[in-house]
Amino acid sequence: MGKSEGIPMVDVTIGAGGAVQPAEVKDVELYHPKSWVTKYVFCQDAKVIAIQYSITALSIGLVALVLSWLIRLQLAFPSSFSAIGPGEYLQFITMHGMIMVIYLLTALFLGGFGNYLIPLMVGSRDMVFPYVNMVSYWVYLLAVLVLVASFFTPGGPTGAGWTLYPPQAVLSGTPGREWGIILMLASLILFIIGFTMGGLNYVVTVLQARTRGMTLMRLPLTVWGIFMATVLALLAFPALFVGSVMMLFDRVLGTSFFMPAIFELGQHLKYRGGSPLLFQHLFWFFGHPEVYIVALPAFGIVSDLISTHARKNIFGYRMMVWALVSIGALSFVVWAHHMYVSGMNPYFGFFFAATTLIIAIPTAIKVYNWVLTLWHGDIHLTVPMLFALSFIVTFVNGGLTGLFLGNPVVDVPLSDTMFVVAHFHMVMGMAPIFVIFGAIYHWYPKVTGRMLNETLGQFHFWVSFLGAYAIYFPMHYIGLLGVPRRYFEMGDLAFIPQSATTLNIFITVAALIVGFAQMVFLFNLIWSLFKGKPAGSNPWRATTLEWQTPETPPGHGNWGKELPVVYRWAYEYSVPGAKEDFVPQNQPPAPRAA
Amino acid sequence: MTTALILVLVALGSVLFHVLSPWWWTPIASNWGYIDNTINLTFWITGVVFTAVILFMAYCVFRFRHQPGRRAAYDPENKKLEWWLTIVTAVGVGAMLAPGLFVWNQFVTVPDDATEVEVIGQQWLWSFRLPGQDGKLGTSDTRNVSSNNPLGLNPNDPVVHDDVVIEADDLHLPLGKPVKLLLRSIDVVHSFYVPEFRAKMDMVPGMVTYVWFIPTRIGTFEMLCTELCGAAHYNMRAKVVVDEESEYQAWLRKQKTFAQLSARTRQAKGTQ
Predict the structure, then answer these.
(1) CA B156 to CA A95: how far, in whole Å?
(2) Residues B100 and B83 occupy one common structural domain
(3) Do A208 and A26 form a contact (C-beta atoms < 8 A)?
(4) Less CB within 10 Å around the terminal CB: N or C of chain B?
(5) In terms of domains, do B145 and B266 share one?
(6) How many domains does chain B have?
(7) If you measure CA to CA, which chain A residue comes closest to B124?
(8) Domain that holds residue B48
(9) Does one domain contain both B239 and B138?
């Protein structure tokens, strides 16, 4: 640490082949749009697809935000709202969870940021399969519309919880049994089809379409994060896909994949011999990697935000890459830590506890490297940087409570309580969403050519960060008390003190205030589009390729006549001896002084 | 400056909230004090790490904030530091995992002298079954369920007839005796949870799961369902009463066996 003498002025990852190696793929001819429709609607340009993905994801996210207000109102003031009954409450939590995890976070990180940033950051003209990429978005939109449609069907959307555990998900004791569950499963199946088309694009583009000199170990961590997340998603979503198809068959055709003999509401159902646990294994084989599908892009992006705004190279780049890869690999062998008390063979607990706590090690390394990047930095407290800092706070907090739940005995009293709700909102709700906000403040100038308003951004940040912390930190203690999750109301349980109700009211007030701050953010997004300060091509003085485009916003084909050539890694900030405190990746090495 | 200060306040405020919180776990009423100890140990380790990381970050934000003329250092890697941090983390993680697995082994290993008690979940109520004079529970199957036989006991199994069946009433357990709960459901997944016992296990239709503990405190405790089981999930409740042995036996004598209940329903049918 500290002393920087003696470190050569080249990137740490230079290979034996010299600074610039030949590109894997020659420059390609793109599809050129001929009309307004092919330019803005059925568009094959990854940048437009990215914006379509982002707007759709944020719009459906607003629905989830409103649902969260209704959930919180019910919890703080039970039996004050005649429109919210136990059934509606379950529908709200189910749709809120599913929208946030799948249709907002996954779609925005991969479909939104992935599409926009991958081609620009690796120096290619577009994704390798632009047509498939376009279809991916339209299938995603269809999935969202099918999901929304379930609100308007008889019986409403499903109230099975976002985990959709059978048998209750397909039986009549759960709301949305008529159409809600069918549309939910259909929508998930569509989403996965759409995602697979996009996902193959991201992976192949990163592997095959990098420009000359862009070795894998020169990729910005943003690309590494999105790349690894996409690989995970391509391997994990099939488990959810088959689970959804099988449950759809159980519901519609009367098969018994997940349905044992059941006596429900006074009669024997026709199911025989299925296994509810099988679904849980399929679900969590997808569900746990899903946590990292959301987290890895956030890890990558936040690394670049911290590095750029602290004017310092990311600390331990190679360790960061290997941490991403090993977290990705380990995430496939931890799924049953969601099932310690599910009734599976309890001896599995030993294996899954060990793998789960091992995954904490590469994760902790990432945290150390983020804060060590701040050490001896030149920290500009811009809005993206503030959001990056708030990510570290919420992620460390949520990650550490994961060590409670990953330990089987500790999980026994805490599982399915509000502790779990607080934990995952902190670690995969707040933390990635703060990265999304930071990333939007960071890249909005590239996408639109204008800066977002700084004052509104500061307001948005402070209210969101402190408000969200005030929501989720105390919530752990309600869970510690023993209050179960997914409860319409706590009722007259003797072990719950009156003060817990007061705390619930406090949390709800905080949630409503944080929700209001998001309206300010939306206003900022629209207002700055017209009135924002012009950004120029590289307002943050960043090194990565997307800031070096000839036009801002980047034009069709990204790079004008010539593809950029990459000479150095992505983190040449404050290099001793260099004139500026950043050296763009495509800047050729200076001729050696005599 | 302000940002660094607020980060410090967030770290210290969290610690203060933890210390002063009136919201804490319920007084324990079972032998699983080890679980509470492991949670406490985990709170200590994670609390120290959390505070240290946030305070370090706050210090950096204060000390290395941008000022005119300031330039960051350039230090890409530091193998030694990275390895040290990895090793220290691994030790901390091991310190939480090892006692956790030790206790988990106890949690899943039922002592031989444990009395078996069956808990049956259905939307949205609890039923119970205790072994009769023979000390054994008879077999059961969801396919046997009918209005005369709501728990689906096997009427052809001779062991079944003296089993004590408790419907829509409290469960009593004797103080200080290990009890193994056999958990069963006839419709959807439910979950048995009594906060004071620190015991929880899902009840899955089509299979029998278990959990064991020793009640260590006399009193009445609430039993909750903690796996979403439909619209009235939040209202699926029952009570467990932990008694002295003599009171427990007195209560037990008043309960009806499966044979008595079947005879009663047959009688009721006969007089119709």
Answers:
(1) 47
(2) yes
(3) no
(4) C
(5) yes
(6) 2
(7) A173
(8) 2-64+79-108
(9) yes
Per-residue pLDDT of A178-210, as tens digits, reads 999 999 999 999 999 999 999 999 999 999 999
DSSP B146: -
> For chain A, what are the domain ranges?
45-260+271-548
User: Are residues B154 and B98 both part of a single domain?
Assistant: no
How far apart are the CA of B12 and the nearest CA of chain A, in angstroms? 13
CA atoms in the 13 A half-sphere facing the CB of A264:
20
Helix locations, A22-129, DSSP H: 36, 46-76, 86-98, 115-122
Q: What is the pLDDT of residues B194-203, one digit of tens each?
A: 999 999 999 9
Mean of all residue pLDDT scores within chain A: 92
Average pLDDT of A224-252? 97
Residues B138 and B233 reside in one and the same domain: yes
Same domain, B98 and B119: no
What the block records as the tokens of B169 is: 């009433």
What is the least distance, in Å, from the CA of B28 to any CA of chain A?
11
Q: Name which CATH class applies to A45-260+271-548.
A: mainly alpha
- pTM (2 d.p.): 0.94
Q: Is the pLDDT of residue A24 over 70?
A: no
Task: Give the Cα separation of A509 and A483 in Å (integer).
Answer: 20
Distance CA A587, CA A569 (A): 11
Structure tokens at A424: 């995952």
B156 in A contact zone (CB under 8 Å): no
Do B83 and B129 lie in one domain? The reply is no
Mean pLDDT confidence for A331-348: 94
Residue position matching structure tokens 């479909």: A111
A352: tokens are 């899954």
Assess: ipTM above 0.90. yes
- The closest CB to that of A262, out of B90, B104, B142, belongs to B142
Nearest Cβ partner for B53 among A171, A396, A416: A396
**Alpha carbon A486 to chain centroid, angstroms:** 23
Q: Report the candidate in B123, B130, B127, B183 with the shortest Cα–Cα distance to residue B150.
A: B127
* Residues A396, B54: C-beta atoms closer than 8 Å: yes
Which residue(s) pair with B165 in the sheet?
Answer: B129
By C-alpha distance, which of A219, A116, A194 is closest to A436? A116
Do B5 and B175 touch, CB atoms closer than 8 A? no
Chain B interface test: which of A75, A94, A263 (most B C-beta within 10 Å): A263
Q: Does residue B238 belong to any structural domain of this protein?
A: yes
Q: Do both B102 and B159 map to the same domain? A: no
Provide the CA B269 distance to its chain's centre, in angstroms.
Answer: 41
Domain contains B122: yes
